[in-house]
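Researcher: Go.
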Amino acid sequence: MNRLTKYQKKIKNKLFIQTVLILICVLSLIYFIYQRFRPEITELQLNDECGPIGNTISHSIATEESCINACNSACKSFKIRYHDCEFIYNREITCNNCTCYCKK
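Model: Structure:
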């Protein structure tokens, strides 16, 4: 009887170790697949060319819609997809800020 219980304990320990190793392998495989195929987001900073014309300041990127259009074009030129944009309007003499986020 004593031999049988020792043998059963060894088998249980081996099964436990096998299960843990298989679980580690599966989790690492899932992690590497996620790392390989996750979308990477690229940030592009677009320059607003602005200058005084008469009594007003002329902007190449004056509104959020023009920022979105410029971002779409910039992302397409790099052959990546448009994801989001951030437009910051400056009321002073400085130019507006347009930041694009594109997915690979």
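Model: The radius of gyration is 29 Å.
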